[in-house]
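so i finally got all the pieces together for this one. its two components total, 578 residues if u count the protein bits. some of the lines might not be protein, just check the labels. i wanna see the whole assembly predicted at once instead of chain by chain like last time, that was a mess tbh
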Amino acid sequence: MDIAWIGTGIMGAPMARRLMGAGHRLRVFNRSIEKARALQADGARLASSAAEAATDADAVFIMVPDTPDVEAVVGQIGPVLRSGAVVVNMSTVAPAAERRIAAYLAERGADYLDAPVSGGDVGAQEGTLAIMVGASRPEAFERVRPLLELLGKRITLMGEVGAGQITKLANQVAVVLALEGAAEAIALARAAGLNPARMVEAIGSGAAASWQLANLGPKIIAADYQPGFFIKLMRKDLRLVAGAALESGVALPGVAMMASMFNAAAAVGHDLDGTQAVAAALERISRAA
Amino acid sequence: MDIAWIGTGIMGAPMARRLMGAGHRLRVFNRSIEKARALQADGARLASSAAEAATDADAVFIMVPDTPDVEAVVGQIGPVLRSGAVVVNMSTVAPAAERRIAAYLAERGADYLDAPVSGGDVGAQEGTLAIMVGASRPEAFERVRPLLELLGKRITLMGEVGAGQITKLANQVAVVLALEGAAEAIALARAAGLNPARMVEAIGSGAAASWQLANLGPKIIAADYQPGFFIKLMRKDLRLVAGAALESGVALPGVAMMASMFNAAAAVGHDLDGTQAVAAALERISRAA
């Protein structure tokens, strides 16, 4: 398959590399072109624009930061896409925007998948991402499924275009509240004079168990805020959640609180730290109290 | 060992039964005496008061609903305890009350352990509880450890008296926020028209994974509010968390929010349902919005 890959950042580059490793020919483009150049060594052809990368491609993958970035890429590639091409957006963006993009591409005879991922840069490198898919047609999903299987371990077709994004946003909702649970449990244990690592060990295999407690709990305790996933990006995702909640008329009080917590963490300098730095914001609030 | 067991409710009865199953002689007492009678068939001697049960006992176990209940039991058994006895409170109560009780018993030559549990009635029956222990002296813990090992799988000595309770409260903090994450993720998915069970499956093995999502998520989806753990008891536990947080000067905004959510669930008739019924309160809020 002739594949175009747009967006070769911390997630996109290792994902593109996995496709090449399986023998696929890739044309790659990135707005900061230096980040794409490293892929040339692996056999990628460097394109000078998204449109050049997408011309005559069978499949176009997009992995960029935010909704306007995806819209800009689609605007550029739309006019050059060959009929029957499949565009696969793996960025996390607004579900409503996805439905508009799918309609725009359908007019040009192209299929569209929203296929956001969970699992971070390690998952991207190891091909163990969870991929949550919405598709313009199930046939389009089947066509690119072998490619997705090179990138992820658990690939779920959730429904029509937008369903992948909703699933990813639901993922983030469960993530941030479990994280806050870990942060507040640790804050309480520590303030009361307990050894917080021992506390995490004592409670970590029962009803309190979570990926967040097991993986980010020790980092919170060590004040190790090295990013697995940036607070800045989680703030973006929670804005998308708020938009989707408003659109479908559902109240999410925990999400509203967590948006405030992450904003507070950003305000005290942690926007480019990992999500676990929300514990630092919690500490600031306690010191002020 | 001569053992007294005070409190033979949904947790206490199966725990007492496990000790008898290992060959220990038990004298049991329960305020509603009918609940203790069932244990006679297993060989327990029925006492007509907590004091009668505790007289000459080597160890006294307490498993009752709340702080005043434990204080009442201790007030009754204090005068009759033999010197060198160990009192083990497995109820979840206020850490500050535990420290007062330990001081009162120390004057009478008795040791005290706060040893609250996690794992529910199933854990009580199967002897797989997590037990979080604070002890007046490590030697007192060692003396009853073989008994605790009949009741639980993971038994952690956390520190001095009160440390067990703080650990249990930290457990509840992590529990309720992970539960809210599951409830809000499901609410979002459902409101946006997704199959919520499929969503849980798609996100359930990555960064969003939690015991709450895996075990209570399906119940939330099915609106199955059969209690594993009563909302009423969780509301009590969150009041204890609020007290402990105030005492140690730590801000826990997520806990404050969850106290409101569980109060709302109680207000709309779910106080004697399982904690997963917090999802019903969330739905009410959405319908009102």
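Chain A touches chain B through 74 residues (CB under 8 Å).
Chain A has a mean pLDDT of 96.
anyway lmk what u think
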